[in-house]
Structure to design on (301 residues):
């Protein structure tokens, strides 16, 4: 085993918590066009490929590790990069920042209609999202309007998924957008309207693009396997979730994707301030009781 391979193995051993599927072998991780790279740099790239990072994230981690090495004066295999300056993350406060929301949004219920929003708001769920999939815009408007009315008189904060214009017009607390929607939505208009903005992320590349928009919160996922929607990326796992939380320390962070009650303590220990759930509530025999139990577990953690 040569020096490069030994260093790759050391990185894999030190950072096994970052492993996801699918991964690749040592031979598959090597690239002919990287033969001229320094051993440390090539080993980082190879290890990140074997750990299952997508190509964009492999290069971002390589760059961050190089920045960390220059900043500290030495290459440290044991230190996974998590300093904001090593990823080019601009400091706060920022001129383009959206209105802030609580750093700890607590239990975050993603719900299919206004009736569910009303039910969970009355049950004391602190953050709710209306995620309505319909092409009938009149029906969508009625649901958004009803959801806004449903949280009045409660302590629940209401986010509307995707339908930013209706969220503005009907007076919702905020809007949540996916990566594709973020590219199409007029972020300046949403910001000027005073709405809070939440953005979905799946990995370093999406996280860095989303944070550059200075949203109110960042959603990190999918943490665990989920059957709710087909994901383009493998589940991130707790190791990566913790790394993202350290990188975005001080920001409002929401963990989402396949999180059940048993996983709550470990998820909360990563440093996120919120856990988003869907079927854990909507498919529960007693949704109000499930919401209460989830919140108790989060507070205990």
């Amino acid at each position: 085993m040569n020096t490069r391979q030994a260093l790759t193995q050391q990185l894999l051993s030190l950072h096994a918590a970052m492993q996801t599927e699918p991964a690749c072998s040592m031979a598959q991780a090597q690239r002919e066009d990287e033969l001229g790279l320094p051993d440390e740099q090539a080993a980082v790239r190879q290890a990140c490929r074997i750990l299952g990072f997508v190509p964009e994230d492999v290069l971002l981690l390589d760059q961050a590790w190089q920045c960390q090495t220059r900043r500290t004066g030495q290459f440290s295999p044991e230190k996974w990069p998590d300093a904001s300056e090593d990823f080019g993350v601009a400091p706060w406060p920022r001129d383009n920042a959206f209105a802030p929301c609580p750093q700890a949004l607590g239990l975050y219920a993603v719900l299919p209609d206004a009736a569910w929003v009303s039910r969970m708001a009355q049950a004391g769920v602190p953050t709710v999202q209306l995620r309505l999939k319909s092409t009938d815009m009149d029906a969508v408007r009625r649901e958004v309007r009803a959801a806004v009315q449903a949280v009045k008189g409660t302590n629940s904060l209401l986010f509307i998924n995707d339908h930013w214009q209706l969220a503005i017009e009907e007076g919702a607390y905020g809007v949540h957008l996916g990566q594709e929607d973020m590219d199409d939505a007029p972020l300046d208009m949403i910001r000027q309207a005073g709405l809070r903005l939440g953005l979905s992320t799946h990995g370093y590349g999406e996280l860095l693009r989303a944070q550059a928009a200075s949203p109110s919160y960042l959603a990190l996922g999918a943490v665990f396997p989920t059957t709710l929607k087909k994901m383009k990326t493998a589940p991130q796992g707790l190791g990566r979730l913790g790394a993202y939380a350290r990188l975005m320390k001080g920001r409002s962070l929401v963990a989402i994707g396949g999180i059940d009650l048993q996983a709550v303590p470990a998820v909360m220990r990563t440093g996120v301030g919120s856990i988003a759930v869907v079927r854990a509530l909507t498919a529960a025999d007693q949704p109000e009781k499930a919401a209460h139990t989830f919140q108790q577990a989060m507070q205990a953690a």
User: Anything to note?
Assistant: The two ends are 44 Å apart (CA to CA). The first helix runs from residue 3 to 14.
